[in-house]
Amino acid sequence: MANASGFLTPSVPNLRRRIQLSVGTYSSGVCSFVRISRRVLCSGIIDGTEKHASGVSPSESRTPRIVSQGCKLVGCGSAVPSLEISNDDLAKIVDTNDEWISVRTGIRKRRVLSGRDKLTNLAVEAARKALQMAEVDPDDVDLVLMCTSTPEDLFGSAPQIQKALGCKRNPLAYDITAACSGFVLGLISAACHIRGGGFRNVLVIGADSLSRYVDWTDRGTCIIFGDAAGAVVVQACNSEEDGLFGFDVHSDGDGQRHLNATIKESETDNALGSNGSVVDFPPRRSSYSCIQMNGKEVFRFAVRSVPQSIESALEKAGLPASSIDWLLLHQANRRIIDAVAARLDVPSERIISNLANYGNTSAASIPLALDEAVRSGKVKAGHTIAAAGFGAGLTWGSAIVRWG
Where does the chain cross the membrane (predicted)? Predict the structure, then answer.
């Protein structure tokens, strides 16, 4: 059965159909596909040797052949800065205290990049750990997706990670900018590359250093954010082993006013001066403002939209909520996590959360929490996870996946 993205989920018996040709437009774009039990149509993968009965070669007819391709999560890793900042540490620089922060957010400490640290180094460390667990050599990586809204280069950090990993075949590497939704979108993008493009091993990294864009005198935001990196290896497999059952993705630009870090021009700096002939040229140097957030509105958005998204992803997967072994949400606020879990009737013992120790690490939060849960033995091969990211944009999305 094809879900809203056109992906097949042959592991759900009651949704299998024999053959149904469809073309559809979805929230994630336009997708054409053939629904055939245990088959996926990969346009662009052509067998150039065989002839049709009519005598017309495939290169002339451009008829795509049907191939079987699924994807699964086979490795994970994470890395955090060495500098730890507790709530008591924050109380020394802003009007707050440990109880005020922990009661409202569930956060007790966070990790922050120091002047000697680099986000790309954390991303590389997390990626290496994920590759090691997956037993995948860097030379066998086909694609690196760096999910971050805080790259250390305006043009993106992914190619530098590919270089640092020593990938000798120069695989494609690019950034995905979607803040706290970034990792989920990266996971879905990896599946698209595997199922539609024939990729074998895709490295998905979520890494952010929002501490660089926090106003440390604003207790409404500085108490929330931390820095980290997490990574997973998404690997091609046959359709029977497919581990991405369904997903749901959305955005709403109208909500950008509630959570943003917009660009601003310097009020005084104009190093080149003015030639007197063109108004406002040369332009002033620009930089990004500190994070601006309306906490109440973001909370309302999350507790309303995230459960709906997970329910939609489950419906597309043909699975009941009771099939979820673990609920893994973006680690933004304990009250949001509890509210979403209550809506979905997920008991507290089936929630994965490390918010208390790391705070909101944006795109890194889901893979960071997943890595700790896998390495501790909590998440085991075959477990079904409902994951959801939500935040700036506003963007949100969910994915129903199986680990291993």
Answer: none
**CB neighbourhood size of 48 (10 A):** 7
Q: How far apart are CA 143 and CA 204, in angstroms?
A: 8
Active site residues: 180, 330, 360
Task: Compute the Cα dihedral for 159, 161, 164, 165 and give only its sign.
Answer: negative
What is the tens place of the pLDDT at every residue in 338-366? 999 999 999 999 999 999 999 999 999 99
Residues 6+ apart with CB under 8 A from 101: 87, 90, 107, 108, 223
Provide the pairing of β-strand 201-209 with 143-147. parallel
What is the domain-level CATH number for residue 91? 3.40.47.10
Range of the domain at 91: 71-256+292-402
In a 13 Å sphere around the CA of 321, the CA atoms on its Cβ side amount to 16
Assess contact for 376 and 383: CB atoms under 8 A: no
Q: Where are the beta strands (DSSP E) in 80-118?
A: 84-86, 109-111
**138 found inside a domain:** yes
